[in-house]
Each structure stands twice: as structure tokens, then as C-alpha cells.
Amino acid sequence: MQVSRIARHLLMTPWQVRRAFPRRTLHAVETAIRASASAHAGEIRFAVEGALHGWALYRGQSPRERAIEVFSRLRMWDTDHRNGVLIYVLLADRAVEIVADRGAHALVGTQEWEGICRRMEGEFKAGRYESGVLHGIEAVTGHLARHFPATAKEQRALPVRPVVL
Fold first, then answer.
1. I need a surface site. Which of 57, 73, 143, 153 has the fewest CB within 10 A?
2. pLDDT digits (tens, 9 = 90+) for 15-51
3. Which residues pair with 45 in a beta bridge?
4. CATH number of 3-164
């Protein structure tokens, strides 16, 4: 257990989350996800969490482990083509994780997803949260459009509204 990590998580407040991701930013994220849906048959969700709580923090849960948990909780596996993609931000760790369902992950791969995450983290370090997320959505959209082109009959299974945990 790292004392500095525990302190960051314990000192993270809802106000800090709202400051990094105010309503206008969350609205911009929702608009970007909605607009991207016309380019592909995939499903994108965005979730931001200020800090881990209690047991998860005590046992040292990694941002990746938490992102997988959130992917499951949001029922991201419920897409017809296994092409759901979650962009997850754990603010206390300044970490971004992308979790893609089997269909999308098999075609895009870990290196591409990690590259998007690292670029987003770079934007976040500079305090450009909205820009970072919008660029991340754009990059994910490019991959989904290439591998899962939009079809006229495609029905969205998942909501596009960002989730603040």
C-alpha cells in the first residue's frame, strides 16, 4: 500500500470531480458520443470516478481492475457485436483506462487502446480534461468506424450519458 495514493484518494472531494468535469464538459462528452454513433455500430460509454473507497483502496485495487468492474456494472457486454468500449477515468490516480469488449479488442488491440489512454492522461496533466476526453472519444470512434461501420438498422443498446461514480 502506498501512503501517497491512499492520501490522494481520501482527500479527493466531489467538488474536485465537478471542477474537472463540470456539467458543460459532461454535456460535451455526451454530445460527442451521440455524434460518434453515426460513424460506427459500436457502443462508447464514459465514466469518471473521483476516488476508490474503503475495501478497494485498502486492497490496492488498480485503475484497470476498477475499470473492468465498472465495465461489468454498466453492462457493456450487452452489445450484439461485442463492440462496447468504456473510457474510464480515476481522477485521484490521474489514470485513464479503456476496456473494450472481445469483438472490439480483438480488432484494435492493447497497444492502440493504451496509446489513447496515455494521450488523454497527458491532456489531463495539463488541466485540459474536456479536450482530453473529446480527443479520446474521437480516437475510439476512428477505430470503431474502421472495424464496425454504421448500418441503417443498428439499434443502440447502451445509453450515451456520461457516468459520474
1. 153
2. 999 999 999 999 999 999 999 988 898 899 999 999 9
3. 86
4. 3.10.310.50
